[in-house]
Amino acid sequence: MDPNAHAVALACKGFLDDDEGRRLHDLGRECAPLGPVVEIGSYCGKSTVYLGSGVKAAGGLLLCVDHHRGSEEHQVGEEYHDADLFDARVGRLDSLPELRRTLHLAGLDDTAIPVVAPSPVAARFVVGDLGMVFIDGGHSHAAAHADYESWSGKIARGGVLAIHDLFPDPNDGGQAPIEIYRRALALGLFEELPGTKTLGVLRRR
Ligand code: SAH
Ligand code: MG
How far is the CA of 17 from the centre of ligand 2 (A)? Predict the structure, then answer.
């Protein structure tokens, strides 16, 4: 991975382990030749930089989808609220300025293209044959299943569906991400590849 981009990723606010990030980088580089890569849930850009620098190495494009208003756990008074990201004039969170700063510092302005919209709305613009989809958006049952339903059918044969925050033991974390992972497997359209920590990886048959 490009050392400058790696330093930017490590310094960026966010919720991604370095091993998971390096795996995203490798998957992005491998899948970008198949078609555009989509990330759901960019926040301040940590995962975006890992994935985007892999995509850039392959000469591909990454669409970074996020409404930038935060998930449930980022709202005022919740566990992962960050007051520095609060836009007082609007009364809502806004992580877009931080994402833009991150992408610029990492040299990804021409590779990683932010799309500011709820995931199912953004999906309506995208026809398909995607090289890879990485889902790391809202972790409510409704949000995660909507992400799955909106995007999983748009992945090209041989492309990858990666899902973050898989916790086989419910005591370790919310179950919505692993529910959609199992849903994809149950259909028989995807085969399981080895995961990395809480990152699950499936390949479209
Ligand atoms: N991948 C990031 C962390 C993402 S946190 C990292 O590496 O640090 C989850 C993000 O998903 C938040 O920024 C939130 O705004 C976004 N999000 C949640 N639900 C969404 C939805 N339905 N559509 C678009 N973005 C959503
Ligand atoms: Mg996550």
Answer: 9
Domains of the chain, by residue range, sit at 3-137+145-204
Quote the distance between the C-alpha of residue 12 and its chain's center: 15
- How much distance in Å is there from the Cα of 177 to the middle of ligand 2? 9
Q: Class assignment of domain 3-137+145-204? A: alpha beta
- Kindly state the greatest CA–CA separation across the chain: 48
- Strand ranges of the sheet holding 190-196, from the earlier edge strand across to the other edge: 112-116, 62-66, 37-40, 130-135, 155-163, 199-204, 190-196
Q: List average pLDDT for each run of 10 residues in the chain, which is 205 residues long.
A: 98 98 99 98 99 98 98 96 97 98 98 98 96 98 98 98 98 97 95 98 98
